[in-house]
Amino acid sequence: MTPKRRQKLFVILGLVSLAAIAVGLTLFALRSNINLFFSPVQIAAGDAPFERTLRAGGMVKEGSVSRDTETLDVAFTVTDYVDDVEVRYSGILPDLFREGQGVVVVGELTQEGWIRADEVLARHDENYMPPEVAQALEDAGYSPEDYQAKAAEVAKRVGAQAGNDDSRQTN
Amino acid sequence: MQTLLIPEIGHFALIIALLMALVQGVMPLAGAATRRPLWMAYARPMATGQFLFLAIAYLCLTASYLLDDFSVTNVANNSNSLLPWYYKASAVWGNHEGSVLLWSLILAGWTFAVSHFSRELPRDMLARVLGVMGLVSVGFLAFVLITSNPFARLLPNLPEDGADLNPLLQDFGLIVHPPMLYMGYVGFSVVFAFAIAALLGGRLDAAWTRWARPWTNIAWAFLTVGIALGSWWAYYELGWGGWWFWDPVENASLLPWLAGTALIHSLAVTEKRGSFKSWTVLLAISTFSLSLMGTFLVRSGVLTSVHAFANDPSRGLFILVLLGITVGLSLLLFALRAPRVSHQVGFNWLSRDALLLINNLLLVIITITVLLGTVYPLLLDALNLGKISVGPPYFNALFVPLTVLLCLFMGLGPLSRWKRMDGRDLFKRSWLAGLAALVIGGVAPLLYRGEWNLKVSLGVVVALWIVLPMARDLWTKTRHSAGRLAGIKRLSLAYWGMVLGHLGVAVTIIGVTVVSNYAIERNVRMGVGDSVEVAGYTFTMTELASRRGPNYLADAAEIEVRRGDSRRNFTMTPEKRLYIARGMPMTQVALSPGLFRDLYVAMGEELEGGSWAMRLQYKPFVRWLWLGALLMAAGGIMAVADKRYRRTVAARDPEGAPAARAREATA
Lengths: 171, 667
Known about the structure:
Chain B: Keywords: Cell inner membrane, Cell membrane, Cytochrome c-type biogenesis, Membrane, Transmembrane, Transmembrane helix. The complex is a heterodimer. By secondary structure, chain A is of the alpha+beta class. Chain A has four helices and eight strands. Chain A has a five-stranded mixed β-barrel. In chain A, helix 3 (about 130-140) packs antiparallel against helix 4 (about 145-160). In chain B, the strands form two sheets. In chain B, strands 3, 4, 5, 6, 7 and 8 form a six-stranded antiparallel β-sheet that branches. The longest helix of chain B is centred in the N-terminal third of the chain and has 31 residues, at about 205-235. Chain B is globular and about 80 Å long. At the A-B interface, helix 1, strand 1 and strand 8 of A face helix 13, strand 1, helix 14, strand 2 and strand 8 of B. Strand 1 (about 35-40) of chain A pairs antiparallel with strand 1 of chain B.
């Protein structure tokens, strides 16, 4: 091998090994950092893991939001109009958070079956129901259209307005 | 009414622009392939014409917005008669159709600039470059006309008033962020076109890199500013003080930036040393492809965010096909042509060449990890394997260590020499700076906060390791018999550009480190008369009032802020607005900015008993984030002003013209 060829070989070997390490590390980091999405139907069915970060979403149930009078603690119920799940959060809710509107929370499911949320995202959808939730309903054997109509009806009754935007809050 | 036909004129101008782009894409390329000067000569007038007609189309749309022509769907959906005029003008790109039109206009602008400033290019090279840009333009103009016509009418039932611009976008940040970002995205099409032209012509000498370098630097500088503006906008507009979320939409702009950063460094090697030729071409193709992918991700509605204006599957498919064709054809061309033009130039493992190779490898690895984290959830979703999201921990876990590694080599870069250098010499030049960085970095958190913090120390060490060896190098280089000023003048602008750019990275690193580790956030319940202390500042709510703005109603709080026991105080007034047309609530943050700290007050929600949930934040060094980005961009621009690029401009002067013609004849 000429020195030039050898240099080329080293470059290629170095590239390949670096790329392999990078992909390995990346996949490892991905495995431990992906958050799966669960809808109330799936949580009620026992599909969701306990004490692991997950995302859950649905509609904020009418009349379920209760604020503590002294602190910033808040509890509300997320529903897909089949099953419900209770969410507790401490902090400021996003501007677009409203009863009857779609919401996605990031947090952990406790053994008692409620979610301790670290982040609440309010997201407005023209169909009122987040697409992931509609999908989960369909997978569970329900017709999402019926529930979407219901969601729309509740949202209109509660008087919330629809936009196309998201906003988010963390604590 | 004479305003009635404006949208139709715009639409018509758009069609003419598409036809001109088609001619510009086909004729010069065919002419270069068959060596027909007449065909090649189509390139420049078509580029001018296309720019002109797109400008007309764009102005027509802007006019419709300013004149409140709600019979145009686009205007009706995104404007309102109550909107101030400057938001009406910027609302043009606050929606899908308008923003793609702006994208096309900027592309035509870059094409026009290339045709104007590159007259000394060999004729066939210029023809190919403009031809490739014309083809890209055809793709985008077809996209606008077929799937996203901004001039579509709402007739005969036109609304009385518009639905208003999304309140999040009614802001100075929005006026400047998208055009800057697009200037960057689209600017990479120039280096892409140069690379493709070089491949087509089989002439991959260092010359094309010299022509392409200034364009790439400018595009990169715009992209840097665009990303920084986006981060700044998110910081004060979204109301909770975050400046980077690893949101897919942000990643979409970061990806071409990372690849572009690798590209500007690899272009330097190719220009100076003639090596890395194929690699540079590949990077040029990748950078522009990532720009296109960014556009696809943001505009296709694959992602739900403030940027995803519409969920029309046909649009996503169109951009995906466009992306596939661009990437596929370019890579095919690369595979066919690259081996023929590659040419190995040897270098030692201890040299600037090798350090820049490492820089490129690391940047590409970072790009790939960010790309994987961004695209992986979309792929899984597309394959119906579940809905997942990849959170910031993933990106931080990979991005931060890789960046630290990158910076370790970055400190050595400016000290090193091309081709080969003595290891002892490199050590002699850098050990003192390294030691100083370690010592200062080690004690910095102690001095700043009285408590040691590993992460802060690491951040400061890395930043100093970038700055100190460079400062020492600068000190040596400016030594001159006629005094230091003469020494400073002797250095090239390109060198100063590098210094500024690297300094910018260090400044940003300091900002990220300090604000990530020392920011304080308190969410509290506050009523009139309540006081809260955060980081030595006392916040007292003195008043709650309602007021009315041009298109919104607001609850405003008046917060009196006093530092420690000092007698001076100032007032901050955060607001919670309700935008009337959309019924959409918005948080208007009150900021007290400073070089070393920001105070950040936002109103959360109204609680019973007349009190509010308030978010009070202390953000040290947060401005350094964006200051660093501005320095980087300034460095990029300064390097373009270097003498060796100006010489080519001088060649266009009357005396210089024969020389240019002679060069063209020999080419």
